[in-house]
Amino acid sequence: MRKICIVGDRFRGLEQHDRVSTLSGFTRSLGSGALDNLEEQLVLVAGDGVGPYEWDHLAEALARRGLQDRITIEARNEPLVRRGEAHKHRETNILVAGLHRVADGHFAASLRVHNDNELLLDHQTGQHTQGMVSVEAARQMFLAVTERFYASAWPQNHYYYVLNSMNVTFENFLFPIGATLDLHVEQADVARPERLAMTVRVDVSQAGRRCASVAIEYTAFESSVVESKETRRAAAAVDTVLDRQLVTA
To answer: Where would I find the A-factor biosynthesis hotdog domain in this sequence (predicted)?
Structure first.
């Protein structure tokens, strides 16, 4: 049995390795008949940039060639966190899947990167996944953990999240072949429902190595507490900037 990893076309830089193929590259080989005489069992392992829609297309292509018994698909089917947990409107931009509690104060999930994720549309070079994906994944991870496991205790409240600090350390390259996210709660002041203050660390790991570590301090305020303050400060900022422009014009 042989395994190869299938990645989305945006990660074509990794295709130089024998055990990696892009979705379009593998589909072309399949359509050309290059795999019709395959003798050993081949397993296609899901990398980043390939989701259920693409796997369905590939499964149909395998069936048309009569190869569904010799080439099997090892897809990743963990559910993405919900829209309200990741604070994202588009599914393509959600990076966290399979979120669960490991132990008290420890939560884990898988990193999922869609081929059309917003962070890849204008920058993807080399073989690795760019560092901003790890940063955004950590942001979504703390939001999803707080929404699902802490803020949910007060379902009548709507929370507004304020970042106090975010410190990122990059330790190893991250590649688009599957990674894990681990969130450790270091401090939590969640006794008052109108104000949830937390300090967490999110580790992004792959193949037994930590790729990035993100330390985050933040507060979730009940929205009515923050909205009036934000409105006042926005009005003051607009007036100050425009009045200054009038003076210098």
So the answer is: 87-217
pLDDT tens for each residue of 14-69: 999 999 999 999 999 999 999 999 989 999 999 999 999 999 999 999 999 999 99
**Angle 52-64/23-32 helices, nearest 10 degrees?**
10
Question: Is 0.85 surpassed by the pTM of this model?
Answer: yes
Instruction: Kindly state the greatest CA–CA separation across the chain.
Output: 79
